């Protein structure tokens, strides 16, 4: 389990199987990370289709991260979990 890993934090994708990081179903995950004062690194899905003839890694990485964080702000994810910021 988590205590055996000795991890300071975790990397997660911004959206997995249609579930975004602001989804209420992840509240228990954020509460656990907050309790452990663990960091979270959000990474966008770079396997999406590119646009305007550019690879997704060039176009979607920055916008995907911003979209996710803004969505988490509006959903109130950070309001109750200050150490996850």
Topology (elements, then pairings):
Blueprint: H1 2-5, E1 9-13, E2 15-16, E3 19-20, H2 27-35, E4 39-43, H3 56-75
Helix content: 25-40%
Low-confidence stretches: none
What fraction strand?
A: 15-25%
User: What coarse outline follows from CA principal-axis ratios?
Assistant: globular
**Intertermini distance:** 24 Å
Average per-residue pLDDT, rounded, comes to 80
Helix count equals 3
Outline the biggest β-sheet. 2 strands, parallel
Can you walk me through this structure?
The chain is of the alpha+beta class. Helices cover 39% and strands 16% of the residues. The chain is built from 3 helices and 4 strands; from the N terminus they run αβββαβα. The strands form 2 sheets. Strands 1-4 form a two-stranded parallel ribbon. Strand 2 and strand 3 form a beta hairpin. The radius of gyration is 14 Å and the shape is globular. The mean pLDDT is 80.
Provide keyphrases for this structure:
85 residues; alpha+beta; 3 helices; globular
Give the gist of this structure.
With 85 residues, this protein is an alpha+beta fold. It contains three helices and four strands, in the order αβββαβα.
């Amino acid at each position: 389990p988590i205590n055996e890993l000795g991890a300071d934090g975790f990397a997660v994708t911004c959206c997995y199987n249609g579930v975004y990081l602001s989804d209420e179903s992840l509240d228990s995950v954020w509460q656990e990370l907050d309790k452990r004062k663990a960091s979270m690194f959000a990474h966008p899905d770079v396997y999406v289709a590119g646009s305007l003839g550019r690879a997704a890694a060039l176009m979607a990485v920055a916008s995907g991260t911003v979209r996710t964080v803004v969505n988490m702000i509006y959903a109130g994810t950070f309001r109750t979990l200050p150490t996850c910021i």
